[in-house]
TrEMBL record:
<dbReference type="GO" id="GO:0016874">
    <property type="term" value="F:ligase activity"/>
</dbReference>
<dbReference type="InterPro" id="IPR004408">
    <property type="entry name" value="Biotin_CoA_COase_ligase"/>
</dbReference>
<protein>
    <recommendedName>
        <fullName>biotin--[biotin carboxyl-carrier protein] ligase</fullName>
        <ecNumber>6.3.4.15</ecNumber>
    </recommendedName>
</protein>
<dbReference type="Pfam" id="PF02237">
    <property type="entry name" value="BPL_C"/>
</dbReference>
<dbReference type="Pfam" id="PF03099">
    <property type="entry name" value="BPL_LplA_LipB"/>
</dbReference>
<dbReference type="InterPro" id="IPR003142">
    <property type="entry name" value="BPL_C"/>
</dbReference>
<dbReference type="InterPro" id="IPR045864">
    <property type="entry name" value="aa-tRNA-synth_II/BPL/LPL"/>
</dbReference>
<keyword id="KW-0436">Ligase</keyword>
<feature type="domain" description="BPL/LPL catalytic">
    <location>
        <begin position="31"/>
        <end position="216"/>
    </location>
</feature>
<dbReference type="InterPro" id="IPR004143">
    <property type="entry name" value="BPL_LPL_catalytic"/>
</dbReference>
<keyword id="KW-0092">Biotin</keyword>
């Protein structure tokens, strides 16, 4: 049983014993240490958006590179295209990190959400024992009852001068009757061997630290650090027919054949051309 944090009210923290609170003290001991990327770890009981909160802290000088902000409940979380992301308290992991890769050319910063996806998939595979796949550019997929379901998402946003806040939301113990939409899933529904959020969070952050260090040491070169190859190997979008809904109400249909050096999804269209897509919403049209 996770020890109670005396700084928090007792009653509300144990309203659902299947969903114990995070142990912030243990998280700090495991992550914030000499030589680590992670400089501070804070857990709040409830907030609108960890991305917005961490960006505000950075602007006020209260957070630097490696700051981690976790919410037990997020009421106004955002996905791409300003989609809402909400879930019951302590049913998932909702956190943001602040990174300042100033030695990497800004043109390569588009790889950060893809890098985070690789780290999330790596950490969950190790800590939860569940197979995950990545849908370009920012969804984390699991298999529930033979069907592909979205269990998480990633959102990167600029934060002040030279900073990027990356938000991650993962459905951990969400039950079938709690799913917001039929296409959603969770680690529990996918048969995870563990839904203990403390080791899951540590696993994802350690994997993120590892991949971010490799990418930064390579000057952001995704091929040089192995990121491009690893992302492609775990990307469920490649090899499928997809429809990319682009800004300006334009769409492109084609087979997803590659992720290029800029992190763009390359589509081979029926017109016989290869079109790179750098932004937009991608719909899988058929299984791989």
């Amino acid at each position: 049983m996770t020890p109670r944090d005396a700084s928090e009210p007792f009653g509300s923290r144990w309203s659902d014993l299947d969903r114990p609170p995070l142990n912030v003290g243990a998280l700090r001991r495991g992550l914030v240490r000499e030589g680590s990327l992670w400089s501070q770890v804070d857990v709040v009981q409830r907030t609108g958006s960890t991305n917005s909160d961490l960006a505000a802290r950075a602007a006020e000088g209260r957070a630097g590179e490696g700051a981690v902000l976790v919410a037990e409940e997020q009421t106004a979380g955002r996905g791409r295209l300003d989609r809402r992301w909400t879930a019951p308290a302590r049913s998932g992991l909702f956190f943001s990190v602040l990174l300042t890769p100033r030695e990497v050319p800004v043109a390569r910063w588009g790889w950060l959400p893809l890098l985070t996806g690789v780290a999330v998939a790596t950490g969950l595979s190790r800590a939860a024992g569940v197979d995950t796949a990545l849908k370009w550019p920012n969804d984390v997929l699991v298999t529930v009852g033979g069907e592909e379901r979205k269990a998480g998402g990633i959102l990167a946003e600029g934060a002040g001068d030279g900073g990027v806040v990356i938000g991650v939301g993962i459905n951990v113990s969400l039950r079938a009757d709690e799913l917001p939409v039929p296409t959603a899933g969770s680690l529990a529904l996918a048969g995870a061997v563990s839904t203990d959020r403390d080791p899951l969070l540590r696993g994802m952050l350690r994997a993120l630290e590892d991949w971010y260090g490799r990418w930064r040491a390579a000057g952001g070169d995704p091929a040089g650090c192995g990121l491009q190859e690893t992302y492609a190997a775990g990307c469920a979008t490649l090899g499928r027919m997809v429809r990319a809904e682009l800004p300006g109400e334009r769409s492109v249909v084609g087979e997803a054949v590659a992720v290029d050096g800029d992190g763009r999804l390359v589509l081979a269209t029926e017109a016989g051309v290869q079109e790179p897509v750098g932004a937009g919403d991608v719909v899988h049209l058929r299984p791989a």
